[in-house]
Amino acid sequence: LPSEFDLIERYFNWQQPAKGVAQGVGDDAAILNIPNNQQLVVTTDTLISGVHFPEQTPAHAIGHKSLAVNLSDLAAMGADPAWFTLALTLPEQNPQWLNEFSAGLRSLAEKANIQLVGGDTTKGALSISITAMGLATAQNILLRSTAKDGDLIYVTGTLGDAAAGLAVIQNKLRLNHAEYCIERLNYPQSRHHESSYIRQYATACLDISDGLLADLNHILKASGVGACLDLDSIPLSPALSSLQKEQALQYALNGGDDYELLFTIPADQQQAFEQEVSRRVLVCHAIGKIDESFSGITSSQGRVLVPQGYLHF
Ligand code: ADP
Ligand code: MG
């Protein structure tokens, strides 16, 4: 078996056009140059086998997803992907697994133009921890705490697919388009491209990882406002639309792992934003409104919506 150093060299030292990398993989630490007029945005996410993905998940998908969930956080902040580090804990050295994991990771890294600049490799139960770094100009940064009364609430893509995919894998749900939902679970599409347009208009933003209601609540609490949601406007894929309405809504409102962006647009910017959306072929939908006179989340039919998102503790 190759040594730890061969393993790093073989699977985690690919060359990519370097932006601002003075030292990448190979020394005790990486050295990165931050452009003068930009801020460094840093996020970490850990994926543990059996907790954040089912144990039988293909290695290629695990490689993709480990990076995608971090890219999603950068997109939510309005930052462009730049660099990442990878702390990998492996139960064994399995060349086929490493090959596929590395290919899944690399393919997304190249697409997103983010470079692997270092990491750590240890033995133990399978866990992948990525720290992603992005660059942003101060006026483009998107926070949770800055939604305003009257703003429209938008989401990218469709909601609930990944949670339905997980339910299928766990034999809790039978579905016509099961493959599509499992793909959405295993290969979340981080919205870094969409973010570059959204951040020109949005007042607040986050990515939906724990369910629409739970994550919308984070924006509401941080901004000190309430919201009214139009449940008929929640975007559903054909797969979820084939379920009964209430069941589909349950996945869309409370299901985790969507990695879509949830953001707010001032009413007087809506027209300009919608024009941008149609020019760029961005998929996003208005689903409600920020309303100071509410606390928490209410549906336009007057239903009080309480988050049942996934909590680790
Ligand atoms: P040290 O013992 O000095 O921390 P390591 O053996 O952990 O050195 O790492 C050697 C080099 O390989 C460092 O540049 C480190 O960032 C990089 N590295 C280690 N593991 C990984 C990994 N899984 N992916 C990418 N780079 C890695
Ligand atoms: Mg080390």
How does the SSE layout of this entry go?
Layout lengths: L3 H9 L8 E3 L7 E2 L6 E10 L10 H19 L2 E11 L4 H18 L2 E9 L3 E10 L15 E5 L4 H9 L8 H9 L5 H7 L5 E5 L3 H12 L2 E4 L8 H4 L3 H10 L5 E6 L4 H11 L3 E8 L5 E3 L4 E2 L8
Parallel strand pairs: 4-5, 9-12
Antiparallel strand pairs: 1-2, 3-6, 4-6, 7-10, 7-11, 8-10, 9-11, 12-13
Helix pairs in contact: 2-3, 2-6, 4-5
Provide an overview of this structure.
35% of the residues lie in helices and 25% in strands. Strands 8-10-7-11-9-12-13 form a seven-stranded mixed sheet, with helices on both faces. The protein has a four-stranded mixed sheet with strand order 3-6-4-5. A two-stranded antiparallel sheet has the order 1-2. With 313 residues, it is α+β, with helices and mostly antiparallel strands. Helix 2 runs parallel beside helix 6. The protein has ten helices and 13 strands. The longest helix has 19 residues. It is globular, with a radius of gyration of 20 Å. The chain starts with a helix and ends in an 8-residue tail after the last strand. It binds adenosine-5'-diphosphate and magnesium ion. The site of adenosine-5'-diphosphate (ADP) has 13 residues, from helix 1, strand 4 and strand 5.
